[in-house]
Q: What sequence folds into this?
C-alpha cells in the first residue's frame, strides 16, 4: 500500500469536498483539523477545485490534499501541478489511471465490479474507491469481492453517513470512507465552520470506537 494511503487509513474518513469559492478551502480545512480530520479530497466538479488545491498547498495547514472526480488527463495534470498528493476517480478509465501511474501519483480509481478490481491489480493498484457504495451493494458486496481478491483494499464512497460509518469501517479491508456528511454544500456556503468541526469530531470518534472494538490496527 502506498504511504499516502497508509496515512489516510489512520484518519479513516475522507471529506469529499465540492467548492464554488476557492477561498472557502482554508477556513474549511481549519474546521476539519479542529475536528481531527487532516485530509481533504477536493473534487473537480467545479472550476474552483484547482485554485482551492493550490491555496491549501501554499498554506501552513497540515492537510493531506487529494483531488477527486478526476475524469481526464487534463484534470490530472491540473490537480498534480496545483499540489494534489493523491487522485480519486468515480470510475475506472484506463487512460486516466495509466496516466496517473506514469506521473507517479497515488491513484484510487472507482470500481463496482470484480473485473474492474482485476484491471487495478494488473496495474499494481491495491487501493480502490468503491462507488457508489450504498447503491452498489454496500459492505456485503465489498466482503464478497474481498473473498476473491484478498489483496485489495477499499475506500467506499457514496451514501456514507454518520449512521452507517461504523458498519463500513468495522471491516479491515476498508482503509477509509469517503463522505460528504460533514462538508455538505449548505454548511460550506453558510460558513458553518463550527458545525463542520462538530460533525468531524463525531466521525472521528465513531471510527476510533469501532476500530477499538474490532481491534483493527492502523499502524
A:
Amino acid at each position: 500500500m502506498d504511504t499516502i494511503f497508509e496515512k489516510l487509513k489512520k484518519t479513516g474518513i475522507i471529506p469529499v469536498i465540492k467548492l464554488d469559492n476557492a477561498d472557502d478551502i482554508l477556513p474549511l480545512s481549519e474546521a476539519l483539523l479542529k475536528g481531527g480530520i487532516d485530509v481533504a479530497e477536493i473534487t473537480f466538479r467545479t472550476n474552483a477545485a484547482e485554485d482551492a488545491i493550490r491555496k491549501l498547498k501554499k498554506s501552513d495547514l497540515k492537510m493531506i490534499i487529494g483531488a477527486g472526480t478526476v475524469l481526464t488527463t487534463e484534470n490530472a495534470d491540473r490537480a498534480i501541478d496545483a499540489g494534489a498528493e493523491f487522485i480519486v476517480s468515480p470510475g475506472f478509465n484506463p487512460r486516466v489511471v495509466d496516466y496517473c501511474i506514469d506521473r507517479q501519483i497515488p491513484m484510487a480509481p472507482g470500481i463496482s465490479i470484480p473485473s474492474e478490481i482485476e484491471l487495478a491489480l494488473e496495474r499494481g493498484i491495491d487501493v480502490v474507491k468503491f462507488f457508489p457504495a450504498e447503491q452498489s451493494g454496500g459492505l456485503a458486496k465489498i466482503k464478497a469481492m474481498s473473498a476473491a481478491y484478498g489483496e485489495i483494499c477499499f475506500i467506499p464512497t457514496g451514501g456514507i453517513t454518520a449512521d452507517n460509518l461504523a458498519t463500513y469501517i468495522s471491516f479491515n479491508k476498508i482503509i477509509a470512507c469517503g463522505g460528504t456528511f460533514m462538508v455538505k454544500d449548505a454548511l460550506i456556503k453558510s460558513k458553518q465552520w463550527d458545525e463542520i468541526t462538530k460533525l468531524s469530531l463525531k466521525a472521528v470518534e465513531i471510527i476510533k470506537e469501532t476500530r477499538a472494538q474490532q481491534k483493527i490496527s492502523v499502524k
Summary: The chain has one domain: 3-212. Strands lie at 13-17, 39-43, 64-68, 86-88, 107-108, 110-111, 127-130, 153-156, 177-179. The mean pLDDT is 97. The first strand starts at residue 13 and ends at 17.
